[in-house]
Amino acid sequence: MTEDRERRARRFRSALGAFATGVTIVTTRDAEGADVGLTANSFNSVSLDPPMVLWSLARSARSLPAFLAASHFAVHVLAADQEELSLRFAARGADKFAGLELERGAAHIPLLRGCSARFQCRTAFRHEAGDHMIFVGEVEEFDHTDLPELLFHRGRYSLAVPKASS
Asked: Where would I find the beta strands (DSSP E) of 4-149?
């Protein structure tokens, strides 16, 4: 990338940071049955009927083949006290699931505990979009709690503070 393109890419990323997002961990199982997961903030609702959500993954990600082949995935909306879990799943290498008590969902996908919300999805569509793949899932099961959510804003973790109603 040229210096001008690199500078523009940094500025673009900074501008995107003005939009606060929730922090999620997306999980699945690979073809050998190993658990796979990563931290993502590219999560969004798509449709209420049928219930659908989407998220995106860099085409350079090591976990891409697992998600491309998977029939199901789960999106976990992290609670405010799960920053450490977010960092664990954002790191490359080590067994991200080591020591975690898991539940199992559709197609035996790993489900994390203590989240604000969880969505178990059947992979409905995959779309190439620039340097990312977009995954659209039809939500088959979901659950949620009243735990406050972990947010990401301007390049760092944040917490939502409700505004007084006017």
From this structure: 21-22, 24-29, 35-40, 43-48, 51-58, 72-77, 103-104, 110-111, 117-129, 132-144
Residue 17: the pLDDT is: 72
Closest to 25 measured CA to CA, from 38, 7, 13, 15: 38
- Give the three-state DSSP class for 77: strand
Residue found by looking up tokens 């977009």 in the block: 134
pLDDT at residue 78, as a whole number:
97
* Distance set, CA 92 to CA 35, 65, 87, 109 (Å): 14, 15, 10, 20
Sheet with 43-48, strands from edge to edge, namely 35-40, 24-29, 72-77, 117-129, 132-144, 51-58, 43-48
User: Does the predicted model carry a pTM greater than 0.85?
Assistant: yes
Residue pLDDT, tens place only, 65-83: 999 999 999 999 999 999 9
Angle, CA 28 vertex, CA 130 and CA 30 arms, to 5°? 90
